[in-house]
Design goal:
Helix content is 39%, strand content 15%. By secondary structure, it is an alpha/beta fold. Strands 1-2-4-3-5-8-6-7 form an eight-stranded mixed beta sheet, sandwiched between helices. α4 (144-166) crosses α8. The longest helix has 34 residues, at 2-35. InterPro entries: EF_Hand_1_Ca_BS, M28_fam, Peptidase_M28.
């Protein structure tokens, strides 16, 4: 009798373990399917519009930038992804007085998916929507990589999360899709969000994943394009860094290059994109970056130069990382504080 009971207990444990593993495999399969809704063809279609001459280089406050924010809004409306500001209002207005110099009023664009279990905790995915406008000789600086690539990547990531939510697999934590203005002239849009009008309290913001140029290959990696520079992942939370590494190994297998993450990096990229305004408020960040190239801040940064399959793969990596952060049981720990 004792042996029979022992056998039954062991059998129950095995069945339970198998059942748990099957559930995890099923969840992972769903997740991969949602990631696969991020496609090179859709990214290309959007970027050829967003980085076209019609948008006049998207200079902050100018007519081309206004077209850009309307385009971003239209994508969220089409996908049924709401604004956290109020119904139908996706623009966080930034007055002219906030900017230095001869800069007109501008706006950030915000959309979000509400968390199913921990809606008060927020994952922010950001990219800047502006660029440097038209040159003195009338050439449009299209900014396809900088940062059209980040902009359309967020739109595809948002659509993937929305698809998951429709299918009953929405994120446990809320996700804010934040398109910020004024990056090229001094990180104004992200600073307005963090310092003046954080729509969600900063103390409830778990992490910021910032995307600034992920559509190209820099000279260092021309022979091995399966790479991405990561900056900031271990600056405030070792746990965030470890999660990022684990997600990459499980789903995408990029070669992460941490060259620019060094405190001795002369380029100081850690301080030069919108994630920094979150990091200075002790919010863990990752900055995704493909490095600079000959077309950086030139009229030749055009959509035909973008590696769309690579852009899609990088966007999937960020989707998987955001998914992990949004659905894990505990929020990631802050183990270092910025002075």
């Amino acid at each position: 009798m004792r042996n029979i009971l022992l056998l039954l207990c062991v059998t129950c444990v095995i069945i339970s373990c198998c059942s748990s593993k099957n559930k995890e495999k099923k969840k992972e399969a769903y997740r991969i399917n949602y990631a696969n809704t991020i496609t090179a063809s859709e990214l290309k279609e959007m970027l050829y519009i967003y980085a076209s001459d019609a948008y006049e280089g998207r200079k902050t406050g100018e007519p081309g930038q206004k077209k850009a924010v309307e385009f971003i809004k239209s994508q969220y409306v089409a996908n049924g992804i709401p604004s956290p500001i109020k119904e139908g209002d996706y623009f966080q207005e930034i007055p002219e007085s906030f900017f230095k110099g001869d800069i007109k009023a501008s706006e950030n664009v915000l959309a979000y998916i509400k968390g199913s279990e921990k809606p008060e905790e927020i994952i922010v995915i950001s990219a800047h929507l502006d660029h440097i406008g038209v040159s003195k000789v009338g050439e449009v600086n299209n900014g396809a990589d900088d940062d059209g690539s980040g902009t359309v990547a967020i739109l595809e990531i948002a659509e993937a999360f929305k698809t998951a939510a429709i299918k009953g697999h929405g994120p446990k934590r809320s996700i804010l899709f934040l398109h910020v203005t004024g990056e090229e002239i001094g990180l104004y849009g992200s600073r307005y969000y963090t310092d003046v009008d954080p729509v969600f309290p900063l103390e409830n913001t778990v992490a910021n994943l910032n995307i600034d140029m992920i559509g190209r290959i820099d000279p260092k990696h021309e022979g091995n394009p399966n790479y991405l520079y990561l900056i900031g992942s271990d600056k405030l939370s070792r746990e965030l860094h470890d999660i990022s590494e684990d997600v990459n190994k499980r789903f995408t297998n990029f070669k992460f290059d941490y060259t620019y993450n060094s405190d001795r990096d002369p380029n100081r990229f850690y301080y030069r994109s919108d994630h920094y305004n979150f990091a200075k408020n002790n919010i863990p960040v990752i900055f995704y970056f493909n490095g600079t190239h000959a077309d950086y801040h030139r009229p030749t940064d055009t959509p035909d130069k973008i590696e769309y399959e690579l852009l899609a793969a990088r966007a999937k990596l960020i989707f998987h990382t955001a998914w992990e952060l949004a659905n894990r049981q505990e929020r990631i720990k802050l183990d270092k504080k910025k002075e």
